[in-house]
Amino acid sequence: MFAPSQIEVRRFFCATYRKLREGAPLIPMEALAARWIDEHPEYHAELADEEAAVNAVYTVEEGRTNPFLHLSMHLTISEQHSIDQPTGIRQALDLLAAKRNSLHEAQHAAMDCLGEMIWASQRSGLPPDGHGYLDCVRKKATR
Q1: What gap in Å lies between CA 28 and CA 108, rounded to an integer?
Q2: pTM of the prediction?
Q3: Between the chain's N and C termini, which has fewer beta carbons within 10 Å?
């Protein structure tokens, strides 16, 4: 299982953004990340300064979105879709994207469900509830 540190994640996204700007070749994971980076120009300034990015602190009280968490969630949901894990997530995400007429908006809706699942797992000390997560995405797709 791959478990990069916070610094490694931030350096990955900053390096991917640098390569994207330079037109350098991207490995497959970078190409996927580049897609989501392109969709979020509001993060470009933060991604352009790697050292500041590594040291940045994002708190709820400041009301700042953590671009690295947000982009990581896009990658997570993209990977879940590609391997259909949890089983049924591909169909649920496809339905949600069709309903919202936007893969990007569908992913943002799914992020709410993913975040809730992670938060609940951390609070309870129990493993993440994949079925509950899938049910949440399905509900968003059918409401």
Answers
A1: 22
A2: 0.91
A3: N
